[in-house]
TrEMBL record:
<keyword id="KW-0809">Transit peptide</keyword>
<dbReference type="GO" id="GO:0005759">
    <property type="term" value="C:mitochondrial matrix"/>
</dbReference>
<dbReference type="GO" id="GO:0051537">
    <property type="term" value="F:2 iron, 2 sulfur cluster binding"/>
</dbReference>
<keyword id="KW-0479">Metal-binding</keyword>
<keyword id="KW-0408">Iron</keyword>
<comment type="similarity">
    <text>Belongs to the NifU family.</text>
</comment>
<keyword id="KW-0411">Iron-sulfur</keyword>
<comment type="pathway">
    <text>Cofactor biosynthesis; iron-sulfur cluster biosynthesis.</text>
</comment>
<keyword id="KW-0001">2Fe-2S</keyword>
<comment type="function">
    <text>Scaffold protein for the de novo synthesis of iron-sulfur (Fe-S) clusters within mitochondria, which is required for maturation of both mitochondrial and cytoplasmic [2Fe-2S] and [4Fe-4S] proteins. First, a [2Fe-2S] cluster is transiently assembled on the scaffold protein ISCU (ISU1, ISU2 or ISU3). In a second step, the cluster is released from ISCU, transferred to a glutaredoxin, followed by the formation of mitochondrial [2Fe-2S] proteins, the synthesis of [4Fe-4S] clusters and their target-specific insertion into the recipient apoproteins.</text>
</comment>
<protein>
    <recommendedName>
        <fullName>Iron-sulfur cluster assembly protein</fullName>
    </recommendedName>
</protein>
<keyword id="KW-0496">Mitochondrion</keyword>
<feature type="domain" description="NIF system FeS cluster assembly NifU N-terminal">
    <location>
        <begin position="7"/>
        <end position="130"/>
    </location>
</feature>
<dbReference type="GO" id="GO:0016226">
    <property type="term" value="P:iron-sulfur cluster assembly"/>
</dbReference>
<dbReference type="GO" id="GO:0005506">
    <property type="term" value="F:iron ion binding"/>
</dbReference>
Amino acid sequence: LTLPRLYHERVVDHYDNPRNVGSFDKNDPSVGTGLVGAPACGDVMKLQIKVDDSGKITDACFKTFGCGSAIASSSVATEWVKGKQMEEVLTIKNTEIAKHLSLPPVKLHCSMLAEDAIKAAVKDYQAKKTKPSEAPPVEK
Ligand code: FES
Ligand code: FES
């Protein structure tokens, strides 16, 4: 596989060796799941965080069905959120991810997916926390 020259080597690195690919159990109360799609291209990104009682993100993983830039952006996003407080990661901007990976302007929406996915994962975790405990999900 050869990638066009317009991609920065960091993108190629995160593309060839994406960090933290995987899934957590979304029914785990310590897990927040963000699932977002890009209307522009139909690509989908799932980013999950594991949060401890102090609100610190102890682990993160992703699955992205999308272009190389979206995969690289999710890979960077999981690296950046690990070890941070939830409020802190809400300030991560897609433009910072894009800059880090030197994404060309046409690929900006791919990094937007990562910013949205982080926010959605935090929101999901917080919604789970504030909801009164429900009956455990039925195993299928
Ligand atoms: Fe991986 Fe910077 S090269 S986050
Ligand atoms: Fe749509 Fe990259 S082309 S996420």
